[in-house]
Design a protein that fits this description.
This protein has about 575 residues and is an alpha+beta fold. Helices cover about 30% and strands about 20% of the residues. The chain has 15 helices and 21 strands. It is globular, with a radius of gyration of 24 Å.
């Protein structure tokens, strides 16, 4: 008889949103649970994300002015995701996401706030909503985690200022306006004084947590409050299969290999494969590189180990990852700092994107996913990887560009490092970027004419509600179109990065892993980015990774808890 070092009802591998939700749900249903995390921090990709949760039909939609129906949301899913993911999985998500959010709201520390105005990414397609479907985690006081605060994964440096103070887009707008608005000055002072107080009290960063870090912290606080056992530094090594059923796993922990029996199953939620060279080579379009914004621990082991136990990869997806343009700073020690150009700079008036011919190739204010799809399309005929984001001096001082901050802040170090390109003329800038000078000059001239009339007939920058939502509402007649006129001119190069993978373990409506013949593998579940995305590599709206992660984590935890466990056997200790 096999010897087990530990026995639980449910074993969850990975402490991101999907994994923690599965663990909390199963424990709430009466199961004993062990949560095993490969790294030394809790939170996974969730902790470094923007934190939005797309959950159509949630209880707050109508409250914020956007009553919704299943038919409307389903129409939008079909008009965006289409056949890139099984219709049954899409329906399950839409039918369950509100219930998952309700469960978390009523029984955990997870509290979300629906956005009163936040258009779906394709607002002109039938079924789209202008708000209500996406929710943000409410601010969380990290001090409530006590000494466990250091076990929470830190956010990306790009989401912090002053070396450790987290900010939202609203906070950033206040900080940029502190010299022009008394109300912004008051809000800015509150933020800074709170941060200074945190540092004086010995915290390694600010404890006012927002975005995905707040969501991860709220889930972690629930794990702690419910006394769910968790192991850090505990990578999965093998799933134990007996008679076709996953009955446990081998996990490396505290310097030894521990065999953990899981009577009701194992949930694999290790964050997908963005840092797996083998899976990237197999599934990503070319060219690709080490450009992901996901934690580097997300290297695909969960998917590969599940495949070794018989699980199959998903198929028929539109894209293998959720794309984002990423600029890269090479540090003196050889390491890289990657900056995701998500929602701050691309849509603002006065920025344009060009390929090696100096020509525009995409609506710069489109979603980050659609932007990279545009890069790959353009690259088929003109080198566009990397592409170049170009602006003038006025734009730089007002909005900044990537890691280069606005308002006259120091940026010489970025120029010296080769991250930020600066030139006194467009010809000089083209030479530094190695793009066609005549093409760049002609593109700027056309772009400036479009800015004057407030319409972009080439690519439609500023033509949708989503575009304008991220633009500058004070800039008219088009919140996203402004000229490039004032030297010096600036640019950064952006690559086809990602914020996570979409291809993963094929699952059914119960989050059970499926084999190559679409049969459920007893005792094996997947959640988060280890599960093949119900969006099929499309990106309909903000929060379409975390929404399904919470939903199918909840589904997996409930299903495992409510179905028959393995027959009881005598426990042996190795």
């Amino acid at each position: 008889m096999n010897a087990w070092d530990k026995e639980v009802d449910l074993l969850v591998i990975g402490a991101g949103a999907g994994g923690m939700t599965a663990a909390i749900t199963a424990q709430f249903e009466g199961c004993t649970v062990l949560l095993a995390e490969k790294t030394d921090r809790i939170g996974g990709s969730t902790a470094i994300s923007g934190g939005a949760v797309w959950a159509p039909l949630n209880a707050q939609s109508e409250q914020v002015g956007h009553p919704d129906t299943f038919e409307k949301a389903w129409t939008y899913m079909r008009n965006t995701v289409g056949d890139a993911a099984p219709a049954s999985m899409q329906r399950t998500f839409l039918a369950s996401s509100a219930a998952a959010v309700d469960f978390l709201e009523k029984n955990t520390e997870v509290h979300l706030a629906a956005r009163a105005y936040s258009p779906d990414y394709y607002p002109d397609r039938e079924g789209a909503a202008m708000g209500g479907r996406s929710l943000d985690p409410r601010m969380f006081d990290g001090r409530l985690l006590g000494t466990h605060f250091r076990e929470l994964r830190d956010p990306l440096p790009e989401f912090m200022v002053l070396g450790g103070m987290m900010i939202t887009m609203t906070d950033a707008n206040h900080l940029l306006a502190v010299t022009r608005s008394f109300s912004s000055w008051k809000e800015g002072m509150k933020l800074v004084l709170r941060f200074v107080g945190d540092r004086l009290r010995g915290y390694h960063r600010g404890t006012r947590l927002v975005l995905g870090n707040a969501l991860a912290a709220r889930l972690f606080k629930t794990v702690l409050d419910r006394r769910i056992e968790y192991w850090l530094g505990a990578p999965l090594k093998k799933l134990v299969v007996e008679s076709g059923r996953v009955v446990g796993a081998e996990i490396e922990h505290e310097g030894k290999l521990s065999r953990v029996r899981a009577k009701r199953g194992v949930v694999v939620a290790t964050g997908g494969f963005p840092w797996s060279p083998d899976l990237r080579a197999m599934l990503y379009p070319q060219p690709t590189g080490p450009w992901s914004m996901s934690p580097q621990g997300n290297a695909g082991e969960g998917i590969e180990i599940a495949r070794a136990a018989g699980a199959a990869l998903g198929k028929d997806h539109f894209a293998p990852a959720f794309w984002a343009p990423v600029s890269i700073l090479e540090r003196p020690d050889g390491s890289q700092l990657r900056f995701p150009h998500l929602v701050w700079d691309r849509a603002k008036p006065g920025l344009m994107a060009v390929n090696a011919a100096g020509r525009r190739f995409v609506n710069e204010s489109t979603s980050y996913h659609e932007f990279v799809l545009g890069m790959y399309r353009s690259h088929q005929s003109v080198p566009t990887l990397p592409a170049c984001l170009v602006c003038d001096s006025d734009f730089m001082e007002r909005w900044g560009l990537g890691l280069a901050l606005p308002g006259g802040r120091p940026r010489e170090h970025l120029v010296r490092a080769g991250y930020l390109y600066r030139a006194g003329s467009l010809d000089e800038l083209a030479g530094k970027l190695a793009v066609d000078a005549a093409g760049l000059k002609a593109s700027v001239e056309r772009f400036n004419r479009f800015a004057e009339i407030g319409e972009d007939p080439e690519f439609g920058k500023g033509s949708t509600a989503y575009n304008r939502y991220l633009g500058d509402p004070a800039h008219q007649p088009n919140a996203c179109l402004g000229p490039l006129r004032k030297a010096p001119f600036y640019a950064v190069k952006v690559y086809a990065g990602d914020i996570g993978t979409a291809c993963g373990i094929r699952c059914n409506e119960n989050a059970q892993a499926l084999d190559a013949d679409d049969r459920p593998i007893p005792g094996l579940y997947a959640a988060g980015n280890d599960m093949h995305s119900v969006m099929g590599g499309q990106y309909p709206a903000p929060g379409i990774t975390l929404g399904p992660a919470l939903t199918f984590g909840w589904i997996a935890g409930r299903h495992a808890a409510r179905h028959a466990a393995q027959p009881q056997v005598a426990m042996e200790t190795a």
